[in-house]
Sequence to fold (413 residues):
Amino acid sequence: MARRVVVTGLGMVTPLGIGVEENWEAISKGKSGVGHITKFDTSSFASKIAGEVKDFRSEDFLSPKDARHLDIFIHYAIASARMAIEDSKLKITPENSYRIGCVTGSGIGGLSTIEFYHSVLLEKGPRRISPFFIPGIIANMATGQIAIELGARGPNTAIVTACAASSHAIGESFKMIQRGAADAMITGGTEACITPLALGGFTSMKSLSTRNEEPEKASRPFDNQRDGFIISEGGGMIILEELNHALDRAADIYAEIIGYGMSSDAYHFTAPDPEGIGASLCIEVALKDAGLHPADIDYINAHGTSTKLNDISETKAIKSVFGDYAFKVPVSSTKSMTGHLLGGAGVVEVIYSILAIRNSLIPPTINYEFPDPECDLDYVPNKARKDMVRIVLSNSFGFGGTNSSLIFKEYTP
Fold:
């Protein structure tokens, strides 16, 4: 029998706040974290809005030296990991360190640092490039630095699967514990790509919203007037533990992870399969892994990007898997409030899903004002809904057609 795996710690940094408490308060109130970009001049860009992290102090989580040498996406990862470990009260010692690992996800890595040193190269030459440049930007340095900071010597790897990265990281960590490769894992994801190059690239793809006059209303998943996603930054980490390992130390258990599915659309390098075939398969695999039927799901935290193609494709996938029950199960997109954290999105949405179980409260899809005839499910419009939530499904889909679905349930002995 596979080992049971539970969640014992949460930590996060998002446009809605630093830490779980700030985030959940904002989510519960349907607050938007989207605003005008302040990091650089956007006058020449069609899209001028994003979900920027506010009031983050790297020095609260890193040494001044590390803060100087590591890209900000790594700062967010370390901060989230420290908060999650503190929340879980898990002590990493020389004796247990080999059984505690770390897997993180990031879609892009240290883009702001790449842009900075490219300017240095052009303006001052190669001799002025810092020896810390390469280790400060690579995607796996988030998981590597967490392990260094916390002393976790168990399985350690990084996953780069676009917007599904942190969801895949959680799923792979779950399976590592299930098969006995570790007793606990620090896992999640991080991203910090609100930069001129990323904004220009996504804008040229016509992926981003240009509702610049109303930033807080720009992210509107499933709404007929949606015009693109909102690029955001931040990340989160959770602590997964083998059940007996958690019980032996009397840990507070948030939820149990019971299902993980992954698939590929095998369709297009950016667009989702228009019929949601890959997403349907991914959800079905997660349900089978959990030993559940579709009607067992109480809430779906959708990928819900606020793009025309994704929202319709995901709606079709849910209908395909859930049949008539698709019209009864609540579905919401918390990206309506956070924007899209890219590689950090999946873990943030997992945390909100876990808190929905914990608090018997379903997060809303804000800015849902004009129903799209092709998106006709119960998207929990505009206000959080008090309801019993025992089992949740969280979806994450990424460029390249990569898909991930995770299922969590209320913990019962």
